[in-house]
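Morning, I've got a small favour to ask if you have a moment. You're getting the sequence in one-letter code plus the fold written as tokens. Thanks so much in advance, here it is:

===
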Amino acid sequence: MMDTSEFQELFSSLTNFRKNRFHSLVWINGRPQTGKNVLIGFFSEVNAKDAKITIGDNCDIASFVSINSADSHRRCIGLSHDIERKNITLEHNVFVGSHVVIKGGAHIGHHSVIAAGTIVDGIQIPPYSLVIGNQMQVKSGYYLKKIKKEKKR
């Protein structure tokens, strides 16, 4: 039976995905910058090829998440010869639920939560936000209000 490190070595040798510190079934393309205490669940993808993806300290990214700087739809349908790539930033203390897609251009403020199944467009999301749904809805400052309420207790 093959152990995890052997599997990761074999998987990396057969694909473009490099070995990583998260899990042998986390697919990382390019060189994203990841902070301290970052968790990324299995079957998640971080595609930073030819773009800058930054994931701050203490971020928790669930399984089945796609953080993808590339958008190839224009090339696929003949409107462009290139794949459009945009940077992505997750500031520190961001939680990303399972089955989330984070598109190029997204900048997620610190202490924010991205609910499971959300598709995050390439916009600036303020700190302490709750982002839910498809089409996404941003509840700015949602968690800041809760933190202030807890401190009053």
